[in-house]
Amino acid sequence: MARIHLHLLSDSTGETLENIAKASIGLFENVEAIRHFWPMVRSDVHLDRIMEEIAANPGLVLFTLTNHPLRKRLETRCRALGLPHVAALDSVADALSNILGQETRTRPGRKHILDEAYFARIEAIQFTIAHDDGVGHENWEEADIVLAGVSRASKTPTSIYLANRGYKTANIPLVPESPPPRSLFSLKHPMVVGLTVSPERLIQIRRNRLLSLNQAPETAYVDNDKVQAELAFARRMFADNGWPVIDMTRRSIEEAAAAIINLFNDRELAEGADGLAGAGA
Fold it and tell me: For 206, which of 28, 150, 243, 272 is 20 to 30 Å away at the CA?
């Protein structure tokens, strides 16, 4: 197994840099990446202390530093040590600069925008946690997305993932014996998405859940006929209301969330186009 030290330097939280590094390492097999994370690098003194650690554990240096003198200092020190160093966002920023015909902005005002995005994400996470499993349905109109599906259809983990991306997400379990609140069918702002899964996969997930709780693995909860009826009930509801549906059978949470975000963005674009058309009329 190949082993590499990976040094990540950022003048902010470094979340973007971490995601880039994780995705890049995932492209290779049999690699052990020892990540050294250095966020909030904003002074020469701080950088010099970090360079001592980098010199002791040489490897690839990835950075996102907007302070030009600090960046030059890092590049000079890396060259002196003979270490490869990459500005992780430069290629994308350069391409955008060429297309847009303007230089990148690095003034302090950009930091304020990032802070607003951070707090918006925290608000989305708090909302999502408070509206899990059908709770707080009177506030669903404030959500961006509402996920509906039978028990163990991955509603909660998908909701949390979407919240981490900044989307206020509520979710509701669909149970034939207990119809959902009527407000679910009259929502205007949120996009309602149905989550489904194959009967075989759902039974397997539910059985594993029962075993993890030390409960009998053979109950009505995993009865094939009952599960089939639950799924049919949910599918009819999705179809009757024209809600988009995501099949979770072979999708990871990340893949499902990406598909939902695409649906949400398409909806926003369509509504924007309709608004422009109405204004033109």
Answer: 243
245 Cβ neighbours under 8 A, 6+ residues apart:
193, 194, 195, 196, 235, 238
pTM of the model: 0.68
Q: Which amino acid is at 201?
A: R
Instruction: Provide the total of helices (H) and of strands (E) in the chain, helices listed first.
Output: 9, 8
Whole-number Å distance between alpha carbons of 23 and 46: 27
CA-to-CA distance for 108 and 66, rounded, in angstroms? 10
Number of Cα atoms under 13 Å in the Cβ half of residue 38: 23
pLDDT tens digits along 139-196 = 999 999 999 999 999 999 999 999 998 999 999 999 999 999 999 999 999 999 999 9
- pLDDT tens for 118-143 read 788 899 999 999 999 999 999 999 99
DSSP 140: G
**Which amino acid, 160?**
I
